[in-house]
Amino acid sequence: MTTTATTGGSVSEFPSPPDSHTTGAPSPAKTPAPRRRRWFTVSGTVGPLGIGITMLWLSIIVLLPLAALTVTSFEDGISGFWDAVTSPTALASLRVTVTVSIVVALINVVMGTLIAWVLVRDEFPGKRVVNALIDLPFALPTIVASIVLLSLYGPNSPIHVQLNATQPGLVVALAFVTLPFVVRSVQPVLIELDRDVEQAAASLGADNWTIFRKVVLPTLLPAIIGGAGLAFARAIGEYGSVVLIGGNIPRETQVTSQYIQQQIEIDRPVNAAAVSVALLAIAFVTLLVLRILASRSQRREEQSA
Fold first, then answer.
1. Looking at the DSSP assignment, which residues form a beta bridge with residue 13?
2. What is the average per-residue pLDDT within 38-50?
3. How far apart, in whole angstroms, are the C-alpha atoms of residue 127 and residue 118?
4. How far apart are CA 291 and CA 296, in angstroms?
């Protein structure tokens, strides 16, 4: 587009400035108006309201009960707390509980990893049924498990195996209720595991055990440790599954949860609270140590990848 101008009787033409509407040139950008902060904007984060609700709920459900339990345990002072925790019967129940829980956790590490491997890598009739049965201890009341185990391994055992009022009976009962923890921790990691690395190792001449130990196990180790920690923490606080088959024999098969109930029944709530705090501390320290080990193992695996 040109513009005609007359100067001294002569006509000259010169181009006019381009029009942004006709040439398609971008118009100057407008500064967006500041957006007001919204409490319920979908942005991938919960915002201060969600954080506040979360902390309030955790305080009501977890922190306040634990604080009340701790205060009760020290009603007789530090010496009273120490005497309650270190009494011979309390120490014996703690020893039985921790020992049996460690054995159960180790059993679950082996059997849980094997079951997860079979469910992920193998195909067989009834696989879906077996996969569903793994979660049965989560849904089944633990007292029902104790009744079933007592019927199977009690004095009138149909298979002539008597485990009633024995520590092996405690192991069987606790292994039943803690089995899903390792299986469900390892299973998703196995599903996401890249099998090309295993095939490459096999093509280089590695046998199955070497492939599992050098390739698969380092990847599964954080999940195995996490599942074992959850199984141990569940086992030391279990009550329903051992209440019948355990026999509740002091210093032999009496677990700490049964000892705590006994202290409440004889009107010693401070002793019960003190032993409960000790049991809680054992579970917390165990989970913390296992979480650190799992994090280090995962970090080491990421660095070597």
1. 4
2. 64
3. 9
4. 9
Reading the block at residue 281, the tokens are: 């501390």
Q: For residue 121, give both structure tokens.
A: 């890598």
Place of tokens 């080990």: 293
> Over the stretch 166-225, which tens digit does the pLDDT of each residue have?
999 999 999 999 989 999 999 999 988 878 888 888 888 888 888 888 888 888 988 998
d(CA 264, CA 262): 5
Task: Show Cβ contacts of residue 301 under 8 Å, excluding neighbours closer than 6 positions.
Answer: 218, 219, 221, 222
CA–CA distance, 120 with 192 (Å, rounded to integer): 10
Q: Angle formed by the axes of helices 88-121 and 77-85, to 10°?
A: 60
Query: Which among 160, 164, 139 has a CA at the least distance from the CA of 150?
Result: 164
Q: How far apart are CA 102 and CA 94, in angstroms?
A: 12
- Which two structure tokens, joined as six digits, stand for 233? 């923490």
Please give the Cα distance from 1 to 18 (Å, whole number). Answer: 8
* Strand-pair partners of 12: 5
Q: Give the relative orientation of helices 167-192 and 88-121 as an angle to the nearest 10 degrees.
A: 40
98-135 residue pLDDT tens: 999 999 999 999 999 999 999 998 888 989 999 989 98
Cα separation, 295 vs 213, whole angstroms: 19
d(CA 167, CA 175): 12
Residue 131: exposure state from Cβ atoms within 10 A (0-12, 13-18, ≥19):
middle
CA atoms lying within 13 Å on the CB side of residue 8: 0
Half-sphere exposure of 2 (CA within 13 A, CB side): 6
> Per-residue b/e over 183-215, b at no fewer than 16 CB within 10 Å?
bbbbbebbeebeeeebeebeeeebeeeebbeeb
Element (H, E) at 34: none
